[in-house]
Amino acid sequence: MPRNILQSSVVAFSLVVILGGCTANGGWSPGWGNVTTSNNTDHRRLPSLVVSDEPAPEVIYRRGSRDTVLAPTADSSSGMRFLPSVSSPSVETLVTRKVTELSRDLTSQQRAVEKFSDRLRTLQHKNDMLASEYYALVASAHTELQAGTTPGNPVLTETRNRAQRKLDELSQGAGHLNELATDVSGEASKAAFLQESVRATYGLSGAVKEDHARLQLLEDDVNQNIVAINRLLTSVNDEVNRRTAYLRTETLNMQTLSLAIANGELYGQNMANSLYKKATASSEKVFKGQAPAARRPLVVIRFDRANIDYRQPVYSAVSQALEKYPAAAFELVAVSPSEGNPAQMALASAEARKNGEEVLRSLMQMGLPLERVSLNAANSRDVINNEVHLYIR
């Protein structure tokens, strides 16, 4: 038999033996080796690695929950177990949604702070313009008074009225500043609450690393926003205090300016503006030690004729006294002659009281508070006409 015919016979015989050992259901026949013939798969014969071009199953996540729904790598009926998924930046957890919500709150608050800053700049510009116009009008009135003018000059009266309107507008601007300070204070409270919310979010479970990284950046932005709000609140409060201080001062000065225009004389600033200077212990001690026991009057006003021009000397004397003794109080004594019949003495006493009340009103217009001045009456043999004496007490 030729050699090639022999080889072909051996191959054919081998195929017949192999195919004959297989059952209809794909199992091995009992006659082939030691392999079991049951339908159960022998896992010891399975390959360690199967390479397939089929796509891997997708991992499914339930949005809005920290729980992850795992997708099986094979059919569950095959007995293969589920494989856990690996965290990914695309995972959305409860913490992810919380960080997004807090970020929106921060953005909204930053926009509110920008609007407050614009409001402050607008109010500052408007108030500065009003203050410039007001001081220009007051300076114009003072210039006319310094040069000399007639009492009750209508031009100066109109200038004073225009200045008063500007001062009223400045007072309204101070009210707007107070409203802005209230709004910024409320935003500061919201910022503190937002900061606490960010810190509390660190304690939530079910977060991935990317959530905490976003939380750290968000916390830094919240802290910077709090610094900006505090700085804005300080600026607003400083502006309110500054405006309130000079509004109080200028309101009193307008009273003195009205008196100066009515009399055609220049007095200066209102005396009440110097009453709030802090009196030192040394000045108090000097005042008490040098209080005149002989009751020497600071000013004596003799009403020996009509229309006595006493206001400028009284203003100068009281101003100098307050500069030396900021805590000083004053006493007005209406003195009338003690000679004559009872009717003459009664008329003189009534006239002296009227003059004393007039001087008291002038002092109040100059800015001296009523609680700093007392008014009394007396009679004396040393006076011929009615007089008003002003004492320091």
Mean pLDDT: 74
Measured on Cα atoms, how large is the radius of gyration? 50 Å
Q: Uncertain runs with pLDDT below 50, 5 residues or more?
A: 10-38, 56-89, 274-293
Give the SSE string: HEEHHHHEHEHEE
Largest sheet: 4 strands, mixed
Count the strands? 6
Query: What's the shape?
Result: elongated
Estimate the strand proportion.
5-15%
Q: What is the terminal separation in angstroms?
A: 156 Å
Annotation field: number of helices: 7
Which structural class is indicated by helix and strand composition?
Answer: alpha+beta
Q: Largest beta sheet: what is the strand line-up?
A: 3-6-4-5
Number of domains: 3
Approximately how much helix is present in the residues? Answer: 55-70%
Detailed description of the structure:
This protein has 393 residues and is an alpha+beta fold. It folds into 3 domains: 3-35; 94-263, no CATH class; 277-392, 2-Layer Sandwich (60s Ribosomal Protein L30, Chain: A). It contains 7 helices and 6 strands, in the order H-E-E-H-H-H-H-E-H-E-H-E-E. The protein has helices at residues 3-20, 94-147, 154-201, 209-263, 281-289, 311-324, 342-365, and strands at 60-61, 68-69, 299-302, 330-337, 373-380, 387-392. Strands 3-6-4-5 form a 4-stranded mixed sheet, with helices on one face. Strands 1-2 form a two-stranded antiparallel ribbon. Strand 1 and strand 2 form a beta hairpin. Helix 2 packs parallel to helix 4 (209-263). The termini are far apart.
